[in-house]
Amino acid sequence: MKLENFRFETDADGIVTLTWDMPNRSMNVITEGVMNDLNSVIDEVANNAAIKGCVITSGKDNFSGGADLTMLQGLGLQYGKLVKTKGEEEAMAFFLEATGRLSQIYRKLETCGKPFAAAVHGICLGGAFELALACHFRVLADTEKTKVGLPEIKVGLFPGAGGTQRVARLMPTGDALQMLFKGDQIKALMARNMGLAHAVAPLDQIVSAAKEYILKGGSAKAPWDTEGYKLPSNKVHSPGGMMIWPPANAIYRRETQDNYPAAKAILQAVYEGLQLPMDLALRVESRYFAHILRTPEAAAMIRSLFLSKGELEKGARRPADVPPLKIKRVGIVGAGFMGAGIAYVSAQAGINVVLVDRDQEAADKGKAYSHKLVSDQIMKGRAKTADRDALLARIHATSDFTALKGCDLVVEAVFEDRAVKAEVIKKVQEVIGRRTIFASNTSTLPISSLAENFERPSQFVGIHFFSPVEKMLLVEIIMGRRTGDRALATALDFVRAIKKTPIVVNDCRGFFANRCVLNYIREGHLMLAEGIPAAMIENLAKKAGMPVGPLSLNDEVALDLGWKILQATKKDLGEAAIDARQEALLKTLVVDLQRFGRKNGKGFYDYAPGGKKLWPGLADLQSVKLDADSLDKQEIIDRLLVSQALEAARTVEEKVITDVREADVGAILGFGFAPYTGGPLSYIDRMGAKPFVQLCDKLAKKHGERFAPNKLLRAMARKGESFYTRFNPYKAA
Predict the structure, then answer these.
(1) Domain that holds residue 458
(2) Is 204 exposed, middle or buried (0-12, 13-18, 19+ CB in 10 A)?
């Protein structure tokens, strides 16, 4: 038996150790070759009388990240070709067979008559965890890095190799649905406590523990294949079952607004599957999986949130001729909320940090933020005291700028004021080395103008973090007019080290993310000024797929900040650059009523310890009150999404965005642009440039020139182009 991806070794007791160790890959993934190998192994184990059972483990640092999604994409392309050459029926038969093959192999393993055990360490996700679930015994390594889970929902898919059926038979139905809907990674001890694993053992003992199960005559039957098996939550059509399914359906609709076909398929597959024997249940799951894999939502999310995101994180935009730099020491000037957050994520990544502020008290306060964050983790059982001590030891808080000497990178995160930043830049460049890269964390001020204060502008770059730094995945790297390749490469290496996703944008007011999100907030303001009920604006924003409504989002980022940005824009660009209705609304709220948002407990919402609710006084600010039942709900949804997508298209035309992947990934990670669309440019592509332009023209005629499509979109509409064909990011490759 020749295997390409596994090592097959039989010991004196007749137990096979199958070590998954794919050549020329840092991570095991499920490919066509892996499936072929597994099929051969199952046949050999089942038919060889000398073999008692098999332990599956990994020869790499992690077990496996799951299926190669490019393989699944390829199946979709084959399906499309077959439809044209052989017809829909034959194409669908091929697609069902191909997409269900992994599930069939796992079921063959589960019913082959010999015990299989999984000895798992490191990451074990998606199809790899479904492999472990098909094994008769699962032992997980008791290490911090060992995590299992089924994260497919996060890229528009759902577990299609038995995951929905086995999890729902191992756990109470409500817990199983929650796990499948969230797609979280679960640590070893928690997985055992949830019933997803049988044992947890030290890393060097997991294989021996798995072998012991087989040696002691461990069962070669899954629980659901044994006589007398009962579902954890009883039958679907039982009093207990009816306590689960109606609320589960309501929760699904509340959380997804019916925008995510994969989430609905999970609900359907579990509901239907639990009423059937396992083999039929797996066929139901496979049919739903084949359907979901062909949806536009899955295609868009796989492309943006798996492929594009992964490519950007691996350095797709990094200058190839600059040697990689291991960031050992970072200086951060400004220990406020942003600076303290940057210090925390840097120290968490093992980087030594010099945290500088105007006096020792301010610097210490910034360091205390890291103490609080790790202490919170300790309280939740996710970290140990030793972890906190080690992280804090990497942060040197000081008021002495000379401590920045020897830093590979210095990031200023001081108040958003040109004069303040200019003063900091001057102080820093007096003490740092000539090769140190300087970065400004600014959300509004153009990098090129800030770089004029630095002696070596080629070593000056923007690194725009989003708040709160420890939670937000996106970082915008801003190229000034004279930013050099080494500065860009250093910024990208730093962002990769702290495990964030970078996008590279060219300099302009608001860069990329803020330009788009400010349009979203403005549209909410203008709707309110028109007389649309505030609750309707917020609820339809969620229906559109946004994580929060524009009014709630404005409260989070602060109304007074919005007012300041509006006044700065007016000062720099003139009266025509702002909308008088928006200015009037913010003036009333911020200047007259001192409502600044969540930070002072009152904005568009009122905040109390028990939660938040829309401020009743908003209705009094509306000179006109429109009847909600008379309004076109789809038009409101269109306005909220188009206002953002149109601005994203403008950034492409202006060459602020030079890689379409970055617009889509940046919009989803930076401000939550409806993930099911794949991002604003994918949203336009899916609609088609011509229909999108027609929609813009319709909105512009009714609501104003802010919806007028730009020249690029009109040209694309005439030529029938899409962003991913006209600006193909893979053309050069």
Answers:
(1) 329-508
(2) exposed
